[in-house]
Amino acid sequence: MAIVISDPETARGTAAAVLYEKRKAAVVDEREARTLAIASEALAAAKEANCIAADDLSIARASARWAMYAAIIATVAAVIAAKDHLLAMLFGSL
């Protein structure tokens, strides 16, 4: 059901109010669209950072594993190099 307004002043005021509300809604929609665009960009950046961090973590784990192997090899080499000295310490002069 349409509202019929017979007074021209009231009609102009009502039309202005409707136009104002439409413009206000458009401004709100534009702000929401900008906010959504900014949030989407932030999400994309966060996803990229997460992928980079995951790659760095896998590389760090592999590096730690190789460092552990190197430490074991260095320990075995030190024991072999000091074998004579260790035997002399444990069992006296041979």
Structural features, described:
It is rod-shaped and about 120 Å long. The termini are far apart. The chain is built from 2 helices and no strands. It has one domain. With 94 residues, the protein is mainly α. The model has no long low-confidence stretch (mean pLDDT 85).
Could you outline the blueprint of secondary structure elements for this entry?
Blueprint: H1 8-81, H2 83-91
Characteristic terms for this protein:
2 helices, single chain, mainly alpha, 94 residues
Q: What is the terminal separation in angstroms?
A: 116 Å
How does the major sheet shape up? none
**Secondary-structure element string:** HH
Structural class: mainly alpha
Oligomer: single chain
The overall pLDDT, averaged over residues, is: 85
User: Strand percentage, roughly?
Assistant: under 5%
Q: Radius of gyration in whole Å, from Cα?
A: 39 Å
Number of strands: 0
Low-confidence stretches: none
Q: Count helical runs.
A: 2
Helix content class: over 70%
Task: Write down the domain tally.
Answer: 1
The coarse silhouette is: rod-shaped
Structure, briefly:
The protein is built from 2 helices and no strands. By secondary structure, the chain is mainly α.
